[in-house]
Amino acid sequence: MKLSDLPIHERIFEACRAHSTANKDAVIFLDAETTTKKKFYRDVEPTVNSLASALIKLGFKPGDVAAQAFPNCPEFLIAMLAVMKCGGAMSNASAIFTDCQFFNVRTVLKAEK
Q: Whole-prediction pTM value?
């Protein structure tokens, strides 16, 4: 089997398009606590494009590294895909990091504020 030449974020967009074409109401995320909070496959790419545009307007460029501290949620995927679409890389940080720990991550990554 030949591996795809597409970047991973484009392969994920393809999968989302396929799911939403097969069923326009296909759900990618359903909040287990409320069951009313839903994210649909059809909304992934437009949301990523919107965030990627905002990141570029803020000066994010290819080769930059973004740190995120999201819990396991759909916004994590959206942010990661937007950063990848901009040509950047995503580094994980913990929401419970102290300021010092986060500063250390930022220093190691040489990420800009």
A: 0.78
